[in-house]
Design goal:
Order of helices and strands: EEEEHEEHEEHEHEHEEEHHHEHEH
Structural class: alpha/beta
Strand order of the largest sheet: 3-2-1-9-10
CATH architecture of the largest domain: 2-Layer Sandwich
CATH superfamily of the largest domain: ATPase, nucleotide binding domain
Mean pLDDT: 93
CATH topology of the largest domain: Nucleotidyltransferase, domain 5
Strand content: 25-35%
Shape: globular
Number of strands: 15
Distance between the termini: 10 Å
Helix content: 25-40%
Bound molecules: adenosine-5'-triphosphate, magnesium ion
Number of domains: 3
CATH class of the largest domain: Alpha Beta
Low-confidence stretches: none
Length: 330
């Protein structure tokens, strides 16, 4: 396993699974939605899906369509997509979760055909809460071992720092605003000093905005991803609700940072101002960085911040950082 190409960075996210690898000196990322829908099994449907190259598996009297195509099928058949993960960890209410994640890994070229060294991201525990992260991490590790891989976990916020903060020698704060969680990590010279997660993220924004507008969460998500921005006017009710819950999420992260630093002993003396890097799909909304910066300016942290910047590729920064960690183990 000396070969660098046999190493991969894996980000098993609530919303998407991303695999990063290094090919001829370049980072390459591939992803699939971490979701599936069940449609009735007929031989006709099975043949057609196969012909069209739609990822699917037979399960009793049903066909499970998974990965990127699941969204279109959910929309066409007015079905709610099922999710192997929820709130950043394996979904306890979804018995097909692990088998589906295994299928998606195969589709991303990280199945059992070749043993690899895998570094995979796991969330931090929520601030002050009992956590299910331990089980999640162990179950994923077991799955990867079954596929023949040698796997170890990396904290998601730290992976963002590995991906984006080489220029500050991996010193700074990395935040991933994902689907199930926001993950925060502060590192000094690549060593994590503190990390935590916040349970308000993209899914929370969707379901909260859906509840107050009497819409389906999937519909709200489509509106959010295609047209929401902080610079726009909130003429429509959905846009207005999205803006409100987006700010709620941002405030929860800023409050979480204050909470983490609330004990003076936790305030590290770093001797220099440090950068904050924002990543994850929820950071893609236009004007997001500016909103976050303003929320920090309104409630400054007890440590000096040099800049607030957006990750180069917010959807794949975690996977890339996990790969950087895997490659560093040479
Ligand atoms: N253009 C966009 N504008 C706003 N939100 C977006 C956009 N694209 C994706 N999102 C949102 O980003 C979230 C998914 O982000 P990401 O892929 O980083 O999450 P994840 O890593 O799968 O989840 P987690 O880390 O919480 O387990 C979803 O809520 C999705 O709706
Ligand atoms: Mg994530």
């Amino acid at each position: 396993m000396k070969n660098k190409s046999s190493r991969i960075g894996l980000d098993p996210g609530t919303s998407r699974i991303v695999v990063a690898r290094r090919v001829e000196g370049e980072y390459q990322c591939q992803s699939h939605l971490n979701a599936f829908v069940a449609v009735p099994l007929t031989q006709m449907a099975a043949r057609t899906l196969k012909k069209e190259g739609v990822l699917h598996m037979e399960q009793g009297a049903e066909l499970l369509v998974y990965g990127n195509e699941s969204e279109r099928f959910a929309d066409l058949f007015h079905l709610e997509a099922r999710r192997p993960m929820r709130g950043g960890v394996l979904n306890p209410g979804e018995p097909e979760g692990i088998p589906l994640i295994r299928r998606i890994l195969e589709a991303l070229g990280a199945g059992g055909d070749e043993p690899r060294r895998v570094c995979f991201s796991v969330p931090a525990s929520p601030l002050g809460e009992e956590s299910t992260v331990t089980f999640h991490e162990a179950a994923l590790k077991e799955l990867l071992a079954e596929l023949g891989h040698e796997a170890r976990a990396i904290n998601e916020g730290l992976a963002v720092i590995y991906s984006e903060l080489e220029d500050s020698n991996y010193t700074g704060i990395g935040i991933s605003f994902g689907g199930g969680l926001c993950n925060v990590c502060l590192a000094y010279l690549s060593a994590p000093l503190l990390s935590f997660s916040i349970s308000k993220a993209g899914d929370f924004i969707d379901s909260s905005a859906a509840a107050v507008t009497n819409e389906l969460a999937t519909r709200v998500r489509i509106v959010k991803e295609s047209s929401f921005g902080f610079n726009g006017h909130f003429a429509e009710k959905i846009q207005q609700a999205l803006g409100i819950y987006y700010m709620d999420m941002i405030q929860a992260v800023v409050d979480g940072l204050h909470n983490a630093f609330s004990n003076a002993l936790n305030v590290p003396k770093l001797g220099r101002a440090i950068p904050i890097v924002l990543s994850g799909g929820s950071a893609l909304a236009s004007g997001f960085r500016e909103r976050f910066e303003k929320a920090l300016a309104d409630r400054p942290l007890p440590i000096p911040i040099s800049e607030v910047r957006l990750a180069a590729e917010p959807l794949s920064a975690t996977a890339k950082g996990a790969l950087v960690a895997a490659l560093a183990e040479m």
